[in-house]
């Protein structure tokens, strides 16, 4: 678990650096219309990564908290809830996409319906690949 | 699936929190197990059985497929 926390700190530090570069670039070098978007993106990433770094440093220095987090993250019920939620969210997304694709086709908006249909196909294709991988693993 | 977890825990005079710490699961998992809302994995069932020093079938009572569907 300590290794995972250390990895999270390192990963968040990289994100922190990218965010810092975004902010510096947007204020010092970039003169285009998207300046506010880049700096906003940078500040968003900066605050989230800083929060994750601080949180994980606190956890790693507190063995009691580390154990609690480890239990919470490896708890089989929590993992099952997470898997079921992902599966349900995926099903709902597919249904929404399929229905909206039909409705948009009926409204004769071909480009949008093609875009949604492509997205749907990609999602189903990824599902098929992950299914094949998982069936070999388990 | 029914279980005697709550009775066994109370016999041992330990709280849900303490049992959760021993079994390395969350307190909510213990609560769900006791209420029969959640069926444990075989690994957790073995952990529970070893802790209470009882065979699994003395702790968990299989009631057939109909009652399994909600899990």
Structure description:
The complex is a heterodimer of chains A (about 140) and B (about 70). Chain A has about 140 residues and is mainly alpha-helical. Chain A folds into 2 domains: about 70 residues; about 60 residues. The mean pLDDT of chain A is about 90. Chain B has about 70 residues and is mainly alpha-helical. Chain B has a single domain, classed as Orthogonal Bundle (434 Repressor (Amino-terminal Domain)). Helix content of chain B is about 55%, strand content about 5%. In chain B, strands 1-2 form a two-stranded antiparallel ribbon. In chain B, helix 2 packs across helix 3. The chains are: A mainly alpha (about 140), B mainly alpha (about 70). Chains A and B meet through helix 3 and helix 4 of A and helix 3 of B.
How many domains of chain A? The number is 2
Radius of gyration of chain A: 21 Å
Tell me the major beta sheet of chain A. Answer: none
Oligomer: heterodimer
Estimate what percentage of residues of chain A fall within beta strands: under 5%
Task: Extract low-pLDDT stretches of chain A.
Answer: none
Note the gap between the termini of chain A: 24 Å
Large-scale geometry of chain A: flat
The name of the CATH architecture of chain B is Orthogonal Bundle
CATH topology annotation of chain B: 434 Repressor (Amino-terminal Domain)
At a glance:
The complex is a heterodimer of chains A (138) and B (71). Chain A has helices at residues 2-29, 35-60, 63-74, 76-106, 110-137.
């Amino acid at each position: 678990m300590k290794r995972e926390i250390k990895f999270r700190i390192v990963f968040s530090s990289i994100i922190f650096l990218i965010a810092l570069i975004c902010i510096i670039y947007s204020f010092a070098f970039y003169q285009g219309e998207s300046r506010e978007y880049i700096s906003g993106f940078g500040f968003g990433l900066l605050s989230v990564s800083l929060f994750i770094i601080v949180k994980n440093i606190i956890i790693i220095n507190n063995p009691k908290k580390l154990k609690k987090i480890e239990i919470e993250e490896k708890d089989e019920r929590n993992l099952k809830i997470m898997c079921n939620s992902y599966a349900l969210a995926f099903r709902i997304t597919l249904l929404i996409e399929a229905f909206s694709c039909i409705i948009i086709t009926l409204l004769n908006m071909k480009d949008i319906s093609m875009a949604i249909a492509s997205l749907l196909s990609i999602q189903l294709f990824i599902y098929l690949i992950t299914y094949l991988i998982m069936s070999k693993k388990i | 699936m029914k279980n005697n977890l709550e009775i066994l825990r109370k016999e041992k005079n330990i709280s849900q929190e303490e049992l959760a710490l021993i079994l390395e699961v969350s307190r909510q998992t213990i609560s769900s197990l006791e209420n029969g809302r959640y069926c444990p994995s075989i690994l957790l069932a073995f952990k529970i059985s070893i802790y209470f020093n009882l065979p699994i079938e003395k702790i968990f009572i299989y009631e057939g497929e109909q009652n399994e569907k909600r899990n």
